[in-house]
Amino acid sequence: MASTSDIKNGLCIKFNNDIYKIVEFLHxxxxxxxxxxxxxxxxxxxxxxxxxxxxxxxxxxxVRVENHKFQFLYPEGDEFHFMNTETFEQITLNKNILDSxxxxxxxxxxxxxxxxxxxxxxxxxxxxxxxxxVTYAEPGIKGNxxxxxxxxxxxxxxxxxxxPLFINEGDKIKIETTSGSYMERVKE
Length: 188
Fold this sequence. Notes:
Helix content is 0%, strand content 54%. The chain is built from no helices and 16 strands. Strand 15 (172-176) and strand 16 form a beta hairpin. Its main location: cytoplasm.
């Protein structure tokens, strides 16, 4: 049993007969009244996000997890195949367990959290950013750069990303995986 003082990002807990991962949290101590912890929880079974407030000192059921490094092999419909980089054991996960499956390139390394009690995969933590090549982008229109104008571009994994007008086909761009947004152009 853990308490609200042990809450941190990435902690997996049992709550409402489901397993949730803490995405965000904020300890609040108002001037009047008891302290509490405001959290944003994501269900590891169906991916739904839930906002919840725990009062200070509230007991929470912590789920023991182990993190293992896996390499993404290939997608097959809604299934994604991964290989453990240490034991070479392969597992298949449904794409709804991934935060942004459209940004996952073959050969990319991810961390997969596995429940130690049931040996079932709970969540996939992607790297903070990925570098992908732009395969299609509309040409930028000259004189349309006075504001932060963006256009839609398709990257090598098939995902659509809003990019600045100066990005062209063949450019490599860095994309933040949590929001799926453009960060910068990468020169090689």
